[in-house]
Amino acid sequence: MTALGKRKDTYYALICFFVCFIPRIIINLGIKASTGGHDDLGFLAVPSYLAGYDWSGVIKHTSYYGFGFSALFMTPIIKIFGGTPFLMFQIMWATVAAFQSLVAVAVYYIAYDLFEYKDRNFCAISGIIMSYLTFCSSCRLENDSVMPLFIWGIILILSLLIKSDEHRMEKTICLDLVVIFLQFMHTRSVIIWIALSIVVIIYRIMEKRWPVCPKTYLAGMVIGTYLVKKTVSYVQTVVWGTTDLANSSAGLKNQLLSGAESGSAIEYIRSFVFLCAGELFTIIQFSNILFAVGLVSILFFLFDKIKRDDRKSEFYSLIFLLILFMGMLGASGLYWNEDARNAMASGEFSKGFFYLRYISTFAMPIAFWGIALTRDINMKYMALLSFFYIVLCLFVISNIGALPNQDLWATFASKYKGNFKSMLTQNDLSIVSIVSLSVFFFFWLLCRKPGKIKALSMIFLLVATFYNYTYQIQNGAKMWGESVYNSVDGLRTLNTAFLDDFNIYCNDDIQKYALQLSYPRIAVKDYEDYNGEKKSVLISRDTDGIKKTDLYYVICDDEVIYFSDAETKKSVLERINK
User: Fold this and answer.
1) Residue 17 structural domain
2) How far apart are CA 121 and CA 461, in angstroms?
3) pLDDT at 274
4) Are 129 and 76 within one domain?
5) Would you tell me how many other CB atoms lie within 10 Å of the CB of residue 430?
6) Which of 237, 242, 312, 425 is most buried by its number of CB atoms within 10 A?
């Protein structure tokens, strides 16, 4: 590449990053508190431990939630800014925002330099769309928020290995390290080893050569898996106090066994199919149909372009993504099967459509090919896809009801105070959304040649994706954050110095999480663990108990402090009133 080309790449990469990063930072400034409750606590369990805080009283009532990313990046933030929680969270969210924004840069580089889509504007806009096409906002402290970047990182390394044998050992080691790091982040990442290994074997059979250094790859997989298992077991014991936890391999195995043993085989299969179909439908809705177009485009690409030597990087990346997604879809369907059966038995069919977070990380990259590969597909197939999609949506709406959390115009209408909202029902709005998006895709596919109309259609798609992120994902997190903040809002009006010198208990989950995250330095305990010790304080939303004892202090309508004894009450009130 020429020096001019490298400079252009740099400019485009910077533009991609800041177009994704700056809006996220601005939106996050309006959020006052943690937005994830127990997930945030699980995510920050190891960093808080490494930073010297004692959150064990709360952590042991949460699920194991990985620690690779959070331990590396959040520990120094907690250690330095733990005394100022608002600033601490803003810096944490900015870190997550940076990783989500880097997705745009990675996609741009992969599309332009490796897959050789020679329209820089197309590659840049595609990257920005992929950055915003996430089911987790930047203010949610969850591994799912940052995992997409690492999935694109695997695609990048795999493509580089296929493109050239140069530095194959180093690339293989990098590939191993990324997957091992992802396993430290979340147990379900073990499926990435399976998908990668299948792709490596397929490549060896078809191309008569190994894409990786086989011994190095195998050694990394075996040693890495062993180290992850031992380290996770140790961390669970030290930080959570037990190894029998959800989100662990043992928890997953127990869930699958108990689900398989309950109910008939036919009912089990029926609910599994129902849940998988629901997740697929929800992903299609959430991605503005991009995911469905991507799947169809990929199938045609695999069958029609299989002998194209110039598209090998794309070809094997697609195989990896399809195996990964289908494997995770199946695992998710099995894991949540019991919940799906209970929902079906109670007639709440829409509950089969909301477990998107667990597979969206692996599904959204497929939507990229929904944008990129349509130029290879015959229009009539896309027309049939849109038609069947509309029919499917109408069937779901008429039999199950609208899915407002995944609907474009319904969210808009819910914010509009005029007659438009009263004129249309929720189901009507879902139909409007489906039809309008499908019509847009007809228009978009008809204008595949470069030009102003094609550019405008890409911008429309970008706006629709940003809308989904801002008004559904980010606003949803913001509303949860406000709930968490308000649960201890009254406490903030007091002199809270007493929290440092007394045993602090809480009996409300949201309030408990909010209390720990709002005051990181104190050791909050769950009221279930109270053993009658003196110098103890219970911060509660329960106002009914105040009639039974005078050992209380009313902060506001829904916040009360209860005291273990009269001496503790007197001492605490003296500090509050200082």
Assistant:
1) 3-377+447-483
2) 14
3) 73
4) yes
5) 25
6) 312
Q: Verify that 285 and 361 share a domain, yes or no.
A: yes
Distance CA 140, CA 517 (A): 13
Write the CATH number for 561: 3.40.190
pLDDT band at 318 (very low <50, low <70, confident <90, very high): confident
Is 429's pLDDT higher than 70? no
Q: How many CA atoms lie within 13 A of 382 on its CB side?
A: 26
- Residue 70 carries which DSSP code? H
pLDDT for 161 equals: 93
The torsion defined by the Cα of 455, 457, 462 and 467, in degrees rounded to 10, comes to 150
Domain assignment present for 224 = yes
Please check the confidence at residue 200 and state whether its pLDDT lies above 80: yes
What φ, ψ does residue 401 adopt, rounded to 5°? 115, 170
Q: Which residue has the tokens 């190894």?
A: 243
pLDDT, one tens digit per residue, over 121-161 is 888 988 999 999 888 888 888 888 899 999 999 999 999 99
Total Cβ atoms within 10 A of residue 529 = 11
**Lowest mean per-residue pLDDT among 7-11, 66-70, 232-236, 483-487:** 483-487
pLDDT band for position 432 (50/70/90)? low
How many domains are contained in the chain? 2
User: What does the DSSP assignment read for 386-414?
Assistant: HHHHHHHHHHHHHHT---GGG-HHHHHHH
Q: What is the DSSP letter of 373?
A: S
Question: Does 372 share its domain with 501?
Answer: no
Q: How far apart are CA 214 and CA 211, in angstroms?
A: 8
If asked whether residues 136 and 73 sit together in one domain, one would say: yes
pLDDT tens digit string along 15-52?
Answer: 999 999 999 999 888 888 777 777 888 899 999 999 99
Query: Quick one: 475 and 500 in the same domain?
Result: no
Q: Does residue 386 lie within any of the structural domains?
A: no
What is the DSSP code string of 472-521? IIIHHHHHHHHHHHHTTTTGGGS-GGGGGTSEEEE--HHHHHHHHHHSTT
CB neighbours (10 Å) of residue 113? Answer: 17
Q: Are 438 and 401 in contact (CB under 8 A)?
A: no
**Residues 459 and 572 occupy one common structural domain:** no
Average pLDDT, the chain: 80
Other Cβ atoms less than 10 A from the Cβ of 488: the count is 25
For residue 520, give the nearest of 79, 199, 191, 178 by alpha carbon. 79
* Residue 161, phi-psi category: left (phi > 0), alpha (psi -120 to 50), beta (remainder): alpha
pLDDT value of residue 25: 93
With respect to residue 422, please indicate whether it lies within any of the assigned structural domains. no
406 lies in some domain: no
